[in-house]
Amino acid sequence: MSLKKVSWDKKASKNCHVKTGRWIDAMTQEEFTNARDALVTTVVPLTYAKKNSSTAWSLHKTMAFVHDWDQLIILRKEKTGEQQYLQNEVCLYVVPDDIRSRCQMVAQWQDARDRWALNAERNELLKTPEWLSECGKLETFNRDEFSQAKRVAGGCGPRSNVLARDVASLYKSNGCEATAGKWIDPYSNKTLRNPANVEIDHTVPLGNAYMSGGWRWNQTKKADFANYSKDPFHLQAVSASENRRKGAKHPGQYLPPNASYQCDYLEEWLNVKFRWGLN
Questions:
Q1: What H or E segment, with its residue span, contains residue 200?
Q2: Which of 73, 103, 223, 229 is deepest in the core (most CB within 10 A)?
Q3: How many beta carbons lie within 10 A of that of residue 278, not counting itself?
């Protein structure tokens, strides 16, 4: 995760290469700022996965496993926690001290093991119930906590504000309600002329925000996040169909079909995380 606004090298040869940022080691919770120190790896190491699979792996399956977004974590190179994690054949002997980070890692581990049909080892069977009992104490996401009631901002709510802000031309309204206009959906690059076909998307979905640190917020800050329209990259006017296609997915599950916008989308995602202090 990056806690600092990242900068990108968008030259064609760099393919969205990250230049700067600030990250936290998934094991030690230590911050670091040098992108060269960041090691992106799978929560279930490849050697462990192959050892605990009932079938031999092809090159295609191996590549799919190491690029499985849902189980990728960031470690800091040459740190004790990373070395313990990577060198231990039964990696669940080593888990983060922070309870929420530990629960997230165990959940990622179990999900990856199930999806990739991996056998469980003795240590997992012994320790996992203990860790999951701790995780059960943590509160779960409730969308109602992120109230999206109308906020005072020019007398209108966030939908009206975003539609007025993002309109390309021909905007008309009846009070706060948009009645006509022309919008360009950045996700699909389609032109939208009927306000009924335009929805307001949270670049970082509410559920993702909650799980990556928003659970700590009080009711006021949760409502502020849901309704914040001052940054053009926080809430965006997009087509209803594309908004529903995205849903609550993270960038490993969804990227805008408009290829020319994908790097900008990733940068906006990380900038929202930075501004709100999210993982």
A1: strand 198-202
A2: 229
A3: 21
